[in-house]
Amino acid sequence: MPSILIVEDEIAIADTLLFALQGEGFGVQRVALAQEALATLRAIPIDLVILDVGLPDMSGFECCKALRRFSAVPVMFLTARAEEVDRVVGLEIGADDYVVKPFSPREVVARVRAILKRSRSGVALAPGEFDVDLSRLAIRYRGQPLKLTALEFRLLQQFAGAPERVFSREELLASVGAATDAGYERNVDTHIKSLRAKLREIAPEAEPIQTHRGFGYSYQPAARGAVR
Ligand code: CA
Fold it and tell me: Within 10 A of 75 (CB to CB), how many other CB atoms are there?
């Protein structure tokens, strides 16, 4: 049962979401402040965060940036104004989607399901390119087995599970369970470099792992470009 954290100070809205999600079998936590959200995320496993942009103690954007320092959890913004969150801003600070108030609870539940599906199953989203076998801790790339270190495996698993999502270095480190001290950040670049070399041995013309200068990396599936 996936666990959802609702961060919303308007009780009526939070209640509506709570009932809609609980009715669909989700476990739901609810807090009204960004600080409470950060504390909750540090304390218990959460599968997705629904984050209001207008919170009393900190904006939802600030909250998202803060949680990205230690968590790769999917984030969906709630906003009163569409222009407040254009796609670019949302993606730059590591959000997965947003919904404009007033919204239909059914729509929110549908989007939550879509995000969870995307974040969990790289196999479903990258047919033919990456095939992740969790029981054997093995990944095939275009049908060829890859020889990966444990860390490379977890990095690639993250990418394959969220095509086109831009991960910051800190996020990638957090998602693979590595420490996030300043010195470790550059290590990500080293692991990515080695990962790319292994991918290139199989498909020299493709560049599935893209660099986003000053921010991090994303996986661009071959079907949507990136093959040169
Ligand atoms: Ca609010």
Answer: 25
**Is the per-residue pLDDT at 124 higher than 50?**
no
What's the 82 CA to ligand 1 centre distance in angstroms? 14
Please give the distance, rounded to the nearest whole angstrom, from the Cα atom of residue 65 to the centre of ligand 1: 18
Evaluate if residue 49 carries a pLDDT over 80. yes
Domain annotation for the chain: domains and CATH numbers = 3-121 (3.40.50.2300), 130-219 (1.10.10.10)
Rounded distance from Cα 130 to ligand 1 centre (Å)? 40
Tokens 């609980």 locate to: 22
Q: What distance in angstroms lies between residue 51's CA and the mean position of ligand 1's atoms? A: 9
The pTM (predicted TM-score) of the whole model is: 0.57
Non-local CB neighbours of 123 within 8 Å, separated by 6+ positions: 130, 131, 132, 160
